[in-house]
Amino acid sequence: MQVLLVTLTLVRALALEGDTFHVQGIAVDGPSLWVTSVDQAARKGWLFEYSLESGKRLREVELQQGSMYHPGGFDIDDDSLWIPVAEYRRESRSVIQRRSKQTLKLISSFEVSDHIGCLTIAGGRLVGGNWDARKIYEWSLDGRQFQVRPNPLPVRYQDI
Fold it and tell me: Residues with Cβ < 8 Å from 124, sequence gap 6 or more?
């Protein structure tokens, strides 16, 4: 089914509390709006949780690991947030972080030898795309790589 943007109606706009820097990914989970963002000048990556009703910032956590501070599009499951955090350049490296929704603490992570800019959970696997989504990766939830293949489409995903 194809939906044209001109046929859609804006329901509401939500002002978010605080500086959001350069937003990389968003996800809605019940009453929460989750946002990943990069502050390139300060070389910091962020995960923010906002109230979906009011836009009030509820929590935040820095995401960088060494030279990796560029979070990407991410996904959520029942109890975790799955976030790619990469160096700020293509063909670099990333760490895929699994964080607790309850505490925002790091549960586990694994490294990838490419800049992963978008990530989703599908069928019990993680699916991610590198910078400009030229390659599509698949991993197990514990980080075992199943495959990498060229993106068959010209679409350059940032969030999937």
Answer: 141
When the pLDDT of each residue in the chain is averaged and rounded to a whole number, the result is 94
> What distance in Å separates the CA atoms of residue 79 and residue 98, rounded to the nearest whole number?
10
* pLDDT grade for 101, boundaries at 50, 70 and 90: very high
Q: Does domain 16-150 have CATH number 2.120.10.30?
A: yes
Domain boundaries, the chain: 16-150
Rounded alpha-carbon distances, angstroms, from residue 40 to 8, 80, 88, 117: 33, 26, 8, 15
Amino acid letter, residue 76? I
* Structural element, H or E, at residue 90: none
- What is the pTM (predicted TM-score) of this model? 0.92
